[in-house]
């Protein structure tokens, strides 16, 4: 049974930091692209960041570049998102998602992701 379980969300003040984790099971984690996707209140899904199966390629949305860092531990089947200098506009439900066999040009397309977690809420507010 495939599972992606996010954790680490919460309430943080602007300028603060959070580290999200996503624990994977039930599939060959080390073969999959892993990404973080978010959904702000009343808005659609927004791709945030992706990391290649062996961490050799990493990509970020312009809105988070320089503030967020994605990483993965294939031995522990976990992907992380370190978020710093958080802004109120980062408020969203953050999902981790897994894709395999997709080109780099497709990683921002939500429909390529095969597996999804249930999401973790991140609220940035004073």
Characterize the structure shown:
The protein has 126 residues and is mainly β. Helix content is 0%, strand content 48%. The chain contains no helices and 11 strands. The chain has strands spanning 3-7, 10-12, 18-25, 33-39, 45-51, 58-60, 68-73, 78-83, 92-99, 115-116, 120-124. Strands 2, 4, 5, 6, 9, 10 and 11 form a 7-stranded mixed sheet that branches. A 4-stranded antiparallel sheet has the order 1-3-8-7, with no helix packed on it. A hairpin with a 4-residue loop joins strand 7 (68-73) and strand 8 (78-83).
Summarize the structure.
The chain is mainly β.
Q: What is the strand content?
A: over 45%
**Computed Rg:** 13 Å
Number of helices: 0
Distance between the termini: 40 Å
Shape: globular
Q: What ranges have pLDDT less than 50 throughout 5 or more consecutive residues?
A: none
Order of helices and strands: EEEEEEEEEEE
Mean pLDDT: 96
List how many beta strands DSSP finds. Answer: 11
Level of helix content?
under 10%
The largest sheet, given as strand count, sense and whether it forms a barrel, is: 7 strands, mixed
**What structural class is derived from the secondary structure elements?**
mainly beta
